[in-house]
Amino acid sequence: MRVDTPEVAFLIDDPLEVGESPCWDAREQALWFVDILAPAVFRLDAATNAIRRWSIPSAIGSLGIAADGRLIVALRDGVYWFDPRAEALTLLASPEPDRNGNRLNDGKVGPDGRFWVGSMDDTPEKLPRAALYRIDTHGRCDRMVDGLIVSNGLAWSPDGRRMYHSDSRAAYVQTFEFDPATGAPSKQERLLDLSEADGRPDGAACDAEGYYWSAGVSAGVLNRFAPDGRIDRKVILPVGAPTMPCFGGPDLRTLYVTSLTRDQAGGRTRGTLMSFRVDVPGTPVARFGEPLHH
């Protein structure tokens, strides 16, 4: 196993409470991300490092970029269109009207062009009453995986034929065979279980070699997993609680990582957004309503 300690650039001045869901916009060469608890959406211009911020009315778990330039955002109670120019939110789907203790969490646009978003039990009990949903541009919502505690870690292999997903509370990563044409997952397989010291699996991304980069939120690391589940590389970060990586930049070889504010032994680490260069590029992420053609 290779261990890296990269030279990291910190990209924002103000701390994030729970930084999450970095998402690269190749057309605009910009990075979108959220602070779940602020709650707010941010846009970083990669060329100038200029930041824009939009306040959001409720906890925002994740976002994706739509084909028309709008965003698709997962708020506590539902999935909404968000038009940053008009600063307008429009409800698209309410996946869990019957699960009041949950809120929506990690989400990403799949190779099928649909928004995949999971929920989490937001009560102190942390019971397996969350799920993973698939939502299309017409608002159709299908429950795809049930019995989760904290749905997280969505990413797809470069050919779109393998879907990765984690439960960050139960601390395992699982895989599915995936049909990018229909958006149907099959052959669910538990790939690996992780300890607190390994890093509980939070948000994730896939690189062009089909390896899965997972934020080890409990250990201050990124773990790069080979398709067979072994840890191929561990990246030591200068923050206590990284939440999600995202490949960006013109060559998809800049890795952006969000983190959250956490009190731990030795003091308080502030949530932030950082970046560093990597030797292997990322896999492009689809836009909502615009499937990747494999």
Total DSSP helices: 0
Tally of extended strands? 27
Q: Strand order of the main beta sheet, please?
A: 1-22-21-20-19
How big is the Rg? 17 Å
Mean pLDDT metric? 96
Low-confidence stretches: none
User: How much beta, percentage-wise?
Assistant: over 45%
Terminus-to-terminus distance: 31 Å
Structural class: mainly beta
Topology as a string of helices (H) and strands (E): EEEEEEEEEEEEEEEEEEEEEEEEEEE
Rough outline:
globular
- Helix % is under 10%
Q: Largest sheet, described in full?
A: 5 strands, mixed
Element layout with pairings:
Layout: E1 2-4, E2 9-10, E3 19-25, E4 30-35, E5 40-45, E6 51-55, E7 60-65, E8 71-75, E9 79-83, E10 88-93, E11 102-109, E12 115-121, E13 130-135, E14 141-148, E15 151-156, E16 162-167, E17 172-179, E18 184-193, E19 201-206, E20 212-216, E21 221-225, E22 231-236, E23 242-248, E24 254-259, E25 262-264, E26 267-269, E27 273-277
Parallel strand pairs: 1-22
Antiparallel strand pairs: 2-27, 3-4, 4-5, 5-6, 7-8, 8-9, 9-10, 11-12, 12-13, 13-14, 15-16, 16-17, 17-18, 19-20, 20-21, 21-22, 23-24, 24-27, 25-26
Quick structural summary:
With 294 residues, the protein is mainly beta. It is built from no helices and 27 strands. The chain is 0% helix and 53% strand.
Can you give a write-up of this model?
This protein has 294 residues and is mainly beta. 0% of the residues lie in helices and 53% in strands. The protein has no helices and 27 strands. A five-stranded mixed β-sheet has the order 1-22-21-20-19, with no helix packed on it. A four-stranded antiparallel β-sheet has the order 2-27-24-23, with no helix packed on it. It has a four-stranded antiparallel β-sheet with strand order 3-4-5-6, with no helix packed on it. The two termini are 31 Å apart. 50% of the residues are buried.
